[in-house]
Amino acid sequence: MKSIVLFWRAQLRRKTAPLLIIAFLSLLTALLVQVPSMTSSYVYSKWRESAQYADVVVGYKGSPLQIVANTLYRLENPTGNLPQESLTYWNKHPMVSESCPVALGDNIDGYPIVGTDTNYFRWMNIALLKGRLPSASTEVVLAAELANRLEISIGDHLHSSHGSDAKGEAHDHHHLEVVGLTRGERAADNEAFFVPVEAYYDMHHGQGAGAVTALMLRLKSKSALVMLPRVFDARANEQGAFPVFIFAGLQKQWAPTLAKLETWGMLLPAAVALLFIAFLYFLAQGEREARLYLHHLKTSPLERFMALYGMPLISALSGFLLHLLLLWGLDFSIASIGAGFALLPTAVAALLFTRIRS
Amino acid sequence: MIITLGSHTITYPEMVLSPGLTLVLGPSGAGKTTLLRALHGTLEGRVDGPLPLEFDHTSLMPQQHSWVPYLTLSEHMKLTPGISEQALDQLGLEGLENKFPHQLSVGQLQRFSLLISLSVPAVLYLLDEPSSALDTDLAEQSFRYLEQHIQAHPNSYYVAVTHDDRMMRAFSSAKTIEL
């Protein structure tokens, strides 16, 4: 034991750099093992989140995927407009707990204008950083990040254009005053302007008053998801899009691709693990004299192993522990798997150590 | 006795060893160092036939790699208790306790190696070319130290491999084995 402590002390003093490299390589291996699974977990969690913003998106008859893509992400064109009657119907529906209208179709500088109410900011976790939310049809808010990029400040007056093209017909008669700056969770909410739904009617001289592009619904009970498709079948010109089913379908479609990503993604940590093994092996070669010396002193194999390789093993373990600490908050079980995988190179290297001949 | 190292085979003459010093002589490649390792019990090869001596407590002074690069002399001494300050003085190594091996000359390292080997409590001491890197004065210093050690341990065996005429003259009464 005395000789082991003596060797460890000397190694700490004279071999600090290699020991730190070992700790770093073990940390890197553990972290890299995590990357592919974390990537797919992240994709899946984002999809799950997206599915939870609204239980149902009601749009004009058409593709449910198109309705979700347009309403939630401002991708694709709207399938059409919902009349006032639809809004009234769904707002009073016994299975619906609350609703949020979404009007789309115009832009400012090519960025979409979303006509909505305050529910949207709450549902989508959009924080108000400065000013206030729009309440009048002449008021607009946008993400602080976008405002900074477009050099727009609170108090500025803007004009909207028709359609999604910045060069569309300008609504010169209708002024919009910036009254607040926000920060959204999703890229789609940080790349758009928000106005009350009424602003849309005023932009178009009152044309289409009462209509919206889509209506997002939150249900009183998730069990209503099973019953609602039949309700939609009976409703002319309305399409119910269910994000939870759409994202589940997407997840199923993407599962093989993400699985492939995980498999190929393991190549990088495998390469670092090999580098780690090589480093430990060459470090062990450098211990040849010490090994022979201890051999001549007739120390036991265990004593030799602990004296020479105990400190590198402790360094490697420090790397694993650091990795666990870093990812503790994220997911302890995932972090443990990474650390477990990173233990493998050390085990292989330890095996190689014992194979080095005197 | 026959020792096989891979594809190489060395056949040894019959050897009878007794307490005191035995000098092993012979040309390079005759298997002198291999013999010492076999007697030390650290040879990685096959030994057919009985060894001339077999003890659990043996100590070997190898030709090289007999120190750890990152331990100071005093740390080496802690690993092999029994090294006295007097012994350091006797071999001209005083004041070098805090030096690392790379800070010493080849001659100093060889004397330190001899000191460590002879400090290990053993029945059989095996010395591989203990004076090859020493000038005449230092070699005589080492021989004197070895002589005293032998006198202090009359029941111990000492087997030294050497090409050094000075050692053969200094220990002219020692038994010799020619390989």
Which features characterize this protein?
heterodimer; A: 358 residues; alpha+beta; 11-stranded mixed sheet; 11 strands; elongated; B: 179 residues; alpha/beta; 3-stranded antiparallel sheet; 8 strands; 33% helix
**Uncertain residue segments of chain A:** none
Q: Please tell me the overall pLDDT of chain A.
A: 85
Estimate the global geometry of chain A from the Cα principal axes. Answer: elongated
Terminal Cα separation of chain A, in Å? 22 Å
**Share of residues in strands of chain B:** 15-25%
Largest interface comes to:
A-B, 20 and 21 residues
Largest sheet of chain B: 5 strands, parallel
Please tally the helical runs of chain B, counting DSSP H or I stretches of 4 or more residues.
Answer: 6
Structural class of chain B: alpha/beta
The topology string of helices and strands of chain A comes to HHEHHEEHEEHEEEHEHEHEHHHHH
Counting copies of identical and different chains, the oligomeric state is heterodimer
What is the 3D form of chain B?
Answer: globular
State the share of residues found in helices of chain A, binned by percent: 55-70%
Order of H and E elements of chain B: EEEHEEHHHEHEHE
CA distance, first residue to last residue of chain B? 12 Å
CA radius of gyration of chain B: 16 Å
Q: How much strand content do the residues of chain A show? A: 15-25%
Strand order of the largest sheet of chain B: 5-6-7-3-8
Q: Rounded to an integer, what's the Rg of chain A over CA atoms?
A: 31 Å
